[in-house]
Amino acid sequence: MMLLFGILSIYSAGYTVRRLVFYGNSSVLSSVEKVGLDLGFGAGGLALSFFYISFLGASLSRINMIGLALIFMAAVVAIKLHDLYKNRVKRSYVAQEGSVLKTGWMKIVVVVIIGMCVAVIFFKSLYYPTYEWMSRSIFGIKAKVLYESKSIYGKDLLDKEFIMEHPEYPLLVPMLENWLYTCRKSSDDRYGKSFLPFLAVGFLCSIYAIQRKFCPQLHSLIFTALYATLYMFVYRATCGEADAPLAFFYFLSGSYILLWTRFKIYPYLVSASIFTAIAMFTKQDASAFFAILSVCLAASLFLDEKLGLKKKFMALCVYIIPALVILIPWVIYKKLLPTVDVFFTAKDIFNLNVFDTIRANSCRIMPVLNNFVFDVVLKTRKWDLFWILFFVIQVFSLKELFRKPVSYLAFVVWATLGTYFLMFITMHIDPAHMFVTMDRFALQVSGLALLLMSLLARQGKRAI
Amino acid sequence: MVKKIIIRSLIIVSIFLGFYRVCCLEVLNSFEDYFKYRKMTVEDFRMKLNRQDASIINEIRNNVQPGMGVLVLDSEQYFISYYVYPVKLYKFRKGYYATSKKQDFRDVENKWLEDRNIKQALVKDDNDKFVLKNISEMKR
User: Fold this and answer.
1) Of A40, A18, A38, which Cα lies nearest the Cα of A249?
2) CA distance A118 to A123
3) Residues of B with Cβ-Cβ distance to A144 under 8 angstroms
4) Could you give the C-alpha distances from B39 to A85, A117, A131, A298, B44, in angstroms and in order?
C-alpha cells in the first residue's frame, strides 16, 4: 500500500510541475504525452525536492519525506478543484487526435506487443533483486546509505573507499530508491527499483506522443514497438541503473527542443531545460548532453531567419538558465564528494589538448570503431536490427537528412555519438571498461535515434 | 519502392526478434530461475546469483561484535567483500573482478586489516557454507 503511495506521489509531483510549466498551454499536450511528462517531471521533481531539503539541512526522515509528498498530492487536489471552479478543462484538436486510438487489427497487434513488453519490464523489475553490479555499487549502495543516515551528508557517502564506484555520481536514482524504502520501512532493493518500470512506461508514452506530432498513429505505434522490443532497453530499464532513466530524460530534452524549433511554444523549451537539469541530476554524462543541446539550439536559432535577435537570445536563456539554477545546490554539494582516480573529471576535459591527445591515441580509433560496430550495431542479440536500421534509413534518406527539423535531430544524435567516440579515444579508459560501457552509452542516445529514424521514414511522405 | 521494402522488412524483423527475445526467452529464463530457486529464501536466491548476500549479514549479526570487521572469502580464500558490523556493506574493489583478477587476502597488509578492526573472516567451506575463522590463524 505504501509502495503505491510512493509511486502515486511521483506522479503527483510530475502532475504539479507539468501544470505549472504548461500553465495556460496544456491544450497542446495529448493524454499520452501528459503521462510521459508527468512521470518524467515527477521522478526528477520528487528526487530533486528530497535532495534540496537534505541540502538545506533537514533530515530525510519518514515524516519529512511523506510530508513533502503530501504537499504535492495536496497541490494536485488544489489544481483539480481550480480546474473545476474555472471550468478550464478544454481539449484541443491535437489532444483529441493523440488520445483516441482508432481501431484496426494492425494497431491492436502492435499495442499488444508493446503491452507485453511493458508487462515483462514490470515483472523483471519487481521479481529480481538488484542483480547488476553497477546498479548496486553506484546507486543501490548510496540509496541504502541515505536510508540509514537520513542525510546527504552521511559520512559514508563522502567516503571514497566506501562508495568506490563513482562517488561523484548524481543522486536521482538513490533518492527515489530511498523514497520507496522509506515508504515501505525496509530496504528491499526489489521494491526500491519499482519506480523504474513506470519511467519505462513514461518513456514509451513520450516516444509515441512526440512522434504523433509529426506522424500518423500506426507509424508512431510501430516505431514505439520497435523501441519497446529492444532487449537492451528492457534489460537496462529493469536492472536499477541510471542509463534508462537518463535515456528518457535526454530524449525529452532533445525532443522538446525539436518541438520548440517547430512550434515556438515556450513551455516546450522550459520543459527541455528542466529535463536537461533532471538528466544532469541522474548521471554526470548528461553534462555533455547539455553542451550538445545548447550548441544545437544556438545553431538552430542562428539559422532561423524569422526570429529577431532579441527573441533568439531569450530562447537560449530560457533553455540554459533554468537548468543551471535547478542544479546550483547539486554543484555546491558535489564539491564535497570525492572523485575517483581511474576516470576523468570535467576539469580534466578542459585541461585536455584534444587534438594532441587524438594524435597520440590514434591507435585507439580502430578498436573503438570495431567495438561499436561489432558489439552494438551488429549485436542483434542485444539490439535487434536497431542500429543497422538507423544507418540504413539515413543512407536511404540523405537528402531529407538536411531538411529542418530533422537536421537538428540528426545533428544532436551524431554529435552525441561523436562525443562518446572522442571520449573513448582521449580519456584513459581501458578496453575492458569500454566493452562494458559502449552498450550503455548507445542506450542513452537511442531514444533520439529512434525519433530520427521515425521522422526520416515518414519525411518522404511530406508529413512534416 | 525497394528502399521502402528494405526498411519495412528490417522494422518487422527487428520487432519480431525483439519480441521473441524479450517476451519469450527472457520470461522463460525468469521462470526457469524461479523454479530452480523456488525452495530457497530470497537471501539464498541472491547469494546464488552472487547478489547482496543477506545470509552473510545474518552470520555477521550472530557472530561478530559491534564495531568489528569481517572479511568474506571464497573457498580459495579470495576476497568477496568485507563488512563492518552493524551491517554496512563494503565491496572490495578487486573483489569486483573476482572472476578474472582475484585477490588473495593473504597479500593484504596487516595494517589495512588493523585499521578496519578486522580480525575474523567468513570463509566458504567445501559445502558452500560460510565458516567463521580467525585471520591470525589463517595468515600463518
Assistant:
1) A40
2) 9
3) 89
4) 57, 28, 19, 60, 9
In which band, very low, low, confident or very high, does the pLDDT at B48 lie, cut at 50, 70 and 90? very low
Q: What is the dihedral of CA A173, A177, A178, A184, to 10 degrees?
A: 170
A318 touches A312 (CB < 8 A):
no
Interface touch A385/B17, C-beta < 8 Å:
yes
What's at A99, amino acid-wise?
Answer: S
Query: How far from A458 is each of A49, A223, A400, A425, CA to CA, in Å?
Result: 40, 11, 10, 35
Residue B37 in contact with residue B48, Cβ under 8 Å?
yes
Q: What residues in chain A have per-residue pLDDT under 70?
A: 87-102, 129-133, 136, 160-165, 189, 339-354, 428-436, 459-464
Q: Is pLDDT above 70 for B41?
A: no
Q: Per-residue pLDDT averaged across B107-120, rounded?
A: 73
Inspect the interface and report whether the beta carbons of A141 and B89 lie closer than 8 Å. yes
CA atoms of B51 and B54, how far apart (whole Å): 9
Which position has the grid cell 519505462?
A200
Strand partners, B121: B71, B133
Is the Cβ–Cβ distance between A17 and A45 less than 8 Å? yes
- The answer to whether A193 touches A130, Cβ cutoff 8 Å, is yes
In the structure grid, which three cell numbers stand for residue A75, read together? Answer: 497541490
Say whether pLDDT at B66 is over 80: no
Question: Would an 8 Å CB–CB cutoff place A146 in contact with chain B?
Answer: no
ipTM: 0.83
A131 CB near a chain B CB, below 8 Å? yes
Distance of CA A66 to CAs A9, A139, A178, A462, Å? 9, 22, 12, 50
A-B CB pairs within 8 A amount to 97
* The model's pTM: 0.82
Residue A404 cell numbers, joined: 529542418
B 60-99 residues with CB < 8 A to A: 88-91, 93, 96
Strands, E assignment, chain B: 69-73, 79-84, 88-90, 118-124, 130-134
